[in-house]
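Feature request, filed as a ticket because there's no other form

It would be nice if the structure record came with a short human-readable summary line next to the tokens. Right now we just get the raw output. Example of a typical job, pasted below so the devs can see what we mean:
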Amino acid sequence: MAMKILAVLLLAWPLLAAADDVTDAIAEGSKAYKQGQFAEAATQWEYAAQLARQKRGEGLLKLLPSAPAGWTEENAESAAAGAAMFGGATTASKTFSDGKDGQVNANLSTDSPMVMGFAQMASNPMFASQSGNKPITIEGQRGFYQYDADSRSGELTIVAYGKHLIQVSGTAVSEDTLKQFARAFNYGELAKQ
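Raw output as currently delivered:
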């Protein structure tokens, strides 16, 4: 008898190991659906979708730049908005400091309807150049940026592969530093997303 129980546990182990909050919520939603509890089913599935977006956000953090020489990473976080808010956007961000006055924020947003608006701006140099923006191409992806040499601050926006919004902003930094951080995103992995 003990051998049969052991055999069942060994066969079931991959399924037990794969269980997590997402799969649990999906299973609870399916159970509620089969019992005709449609509101509960929808709630469980929406919860599962939110958890999945959070896991995606955690994965996006790996695509952001690492701190270059002379800089330290001060903060990293990801967030996922529900479909009702911002169309279900998933974001990841990191903040960097040079140990003096320089600070850079690197942000990545995906799964967001806002990306389409920025994509139109980035693809049209005349539109991108409004409000003092300058067009820019990094790793084959178009965008625009502003830089104020007097305050040594600026912001750079890239639309990567038509679905990811990369934003780099900085204070007390050079224009080249902003571009360096924008180039340091993992574009190869972004292309696969």
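Something like this underneath would help us a lot:
The two ends are 48 Å apart (CA to CA).
The chain has a mean pLDDT of 81.
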